[in-house]
């Protein structure tokens, strides 16, 4: 409507006062319409002998303001009343959870949750034999004493006999590479699935 600065100020004040009357004075729809008419009679067009400086809005502008209030505030008056008067239940859109990591029973060896690796890799390469594995070995020794004799003989031998430091490093490097390759492959598969899902969404948005 190409309002002047004064007209903008009066218009925004009018909107603020209407909402304030609804919120604090609990004016009904009829009371708000009556109040608007009285205010527009003061700041709107007039045929009295007053100076033209008091005529903030002309007839076209006053009608446009009334039409705007009719389709915005007055048409949805019940909705504004509900918003100001009715107590709304607080909706929880988020929650916090605390995950307690159980300390490993293996002493200094970390558990898979702390390391962020799968339980299979942890049990194969990191976790030492459990009590159940020890009991199974003892049971095997009781059932087959003849076969267990070679094992007792070899148990006293150093498992690293015949290997130097370079051989141990080579084995550790190979195991580490196998683990990293498996993790990298899993990450790449997940990234590929996410990329395909994003591409499908983009195509749907383009079609829409």
Care to describe what's here?
With 208 residues, this protein is mainly alpha-helical. The chain has a domain at 5-85. It is built from nine helices and no strands. It has helices spanning 5-25, 29-43, 59-74, 77-85, 112-115, 119-126, 131-143, 145-155, 165-207. It starts with a helix and ends with a helix. The model is unreliable at 47-54 (pLDDT under 50).
Structural class label: mainly alpha
H/E series: HHHHHHHHH
Main β-sheet, in a few words?
none
Mean pLDDT: 76
Number of helices: 9
**Distance between the amino and carboxyl termini:** 35 Å
Taken as a percent bin, the fraction of beta residues is under 5%
| Poorly predicted sequence stretches spanning 5 or more consecutive residues | 47-54
Outline: elongated
Rg, nearest Å: 40 Å
The proportion of residues forming helix, as a percent range, comes to 55-70%
Q: Count all strands and give the number.
A: 0
Region (Disordered): 138-160
Pfam family, one: CLAMP
Protein name: Ciliary associated calcium binding coiled-coil 1
Biased composition (Acidic residues): 141-150
Features:
CLAMP, single chain, mainly alpha, elongated, 9 helices, Ciliary associated calcium binding coiled-coil 1, 208 residues
Write the layout of secondary structure elements.
Blueprint: H1 5-25, H2 29-43, H3 59-74, H4 77-85, H5 112-115, H6 119-126, H7 131-143, H8 145-155, H9 165-207
Short summary of the structure?
The protein is mainly α and 208 residues long. The chain contains nine helices and no strands.
């Amino acid at each position: 409507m190409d309002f002047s600065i004064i007209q903008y100020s009066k218009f925004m004040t009018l909107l603020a006062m209407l909402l304030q009357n609804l919120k604090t004075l609990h004016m009904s729809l009829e009371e708000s319409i009556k109040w608007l008419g009285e205010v527009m009679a003061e700041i709107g067009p007039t045929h009295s002998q007053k100076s033209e400086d008091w005529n903030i809005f002309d007839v076209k502008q006053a009608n446009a303001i009334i039409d705007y209030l009719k389709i915005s505030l007055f048409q949805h008056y019940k909705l504004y009343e509900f918003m100001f008067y009715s107590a709304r239940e607080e909706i929880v859109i988020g929650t916090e959870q605390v995950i307690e990591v159980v300390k490993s029973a293996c002493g200094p060896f970390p558990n898979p949750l702390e390391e962020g690796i799968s339980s299979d890799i942890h049990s194969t390469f990191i976790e030492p034999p459990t009590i159940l594995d020890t009991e199974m070995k003892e049971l095997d020794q009781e059932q087959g004493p003849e076969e267990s004799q070679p094992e007792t003989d070899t148990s006293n031998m150093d498992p690293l006999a015949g290997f130097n430091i370079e051989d141990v490093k080579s084995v550790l490097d190979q195991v580490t590479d196998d683990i990293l390759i498996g993790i990298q492959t899993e990450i790449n598969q997940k990234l590929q699935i996410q990329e395909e899902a994003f591409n499908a969404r983009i195509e749907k948005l383009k079609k829409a």
